[in-house]
Amino acid sequence: MKLPMFDLTGKVAIITGGYQGIGRGIAEGLAEAGSDVVICARNYDRCAEACSEIAKLGGKTLPIRCDISKSEEVKKLVSETVNEMGKIDILVNNAGVGGSEKPIIEMSDEDWDHAVDIDLRGAFLCTREAAKEMIKQGGGKIINVSSIAAFIAMANMSAYCASKGGLLQLTKVMALEFIPYNIQVNALCPGYFLTPMNRKFFESEVGQKIIRKNIPMGRLGNPEELKGTAIYLASSATDFMTGSAIVIDGGQLLW
After folding, report:
1. Distance of alpha carbon 4 from its chain centroid, rounded?
2. Choosing from 19, 160, 192, 232, which is the catalytic residue?
């Protein structure tokens, strides 16, 4: 059975922080559905390596170095994408940092700013610039990668929880403001997924104990398990869906 509504052929997607982990899984999924892919991050070489691999799936790819917390670099990201790829149909605000795991009373200004600048400010800047192009084109899709930390409190993770909670609320405001322009904005909220950054911790005895205690399914998610949801949110199947949040967490919020 063919499902043409999930076909992204001819679309152009920007995935921030898309060279590894959750972003890489989403980038691969969109490419498999036919989309051309732009991957940006502060490490250009890693972006180029990822693009080289993703290009084997058949579409065009473009690596761009960008610090998404800096307005001028984001403007350059958008202009370079339009110049090289012709348009922007899909924006995935995925880039993020976990932030310093410290109690609030021990957290420095720099600790706080680093998490909020990437996780929240970056999504705002990228959306502001990409949406201008989407409005010219008559529509688009924006996917904000938030977290289950937007719904629950995690001790010593105040900056991360605040920024991801803020991103969820920002998603709703974006969705409301962009309705007249046929731009749908939704949030994807993963639980604990295995990535290169957390592999060592979750393979430790402490990490394994956290998995058993917090995830009813008893395991971490695999970034590949986000592909289908990302394709769904980027496709015409969600033309009547905006301002929503989809949680994928192995049942963690049930406990």
Report:
1. 24
2. 160
At 144, which CATH number? 3.40.50.720
Assessment of whether the complete model's pTM goes beyond 0.70: yes
- 100 — phi, psi (to 5°)? -75, 130
Do residues 202 and 192 make contact, with C-beta atoms less than 8 angstroms apart? yes
pLDDT digits 0-9 by tens, 165-220: 999 999 999 999 999 999 999 999 999 999 887 888 899 998 999 999 999 999 99
**Residue 160 bears catalytic tag:** yes
Tell me the per-residue pLDDT of 19-50, one tens digit each, with 9 for 90 and over. Answer: 999 999 999 999 999 999 999 999 999 999 99
| Domains identified in the chain, total number | 1
* Tokens representing residue 162 in the block: 């605040």
Token output for 199: 């592999």
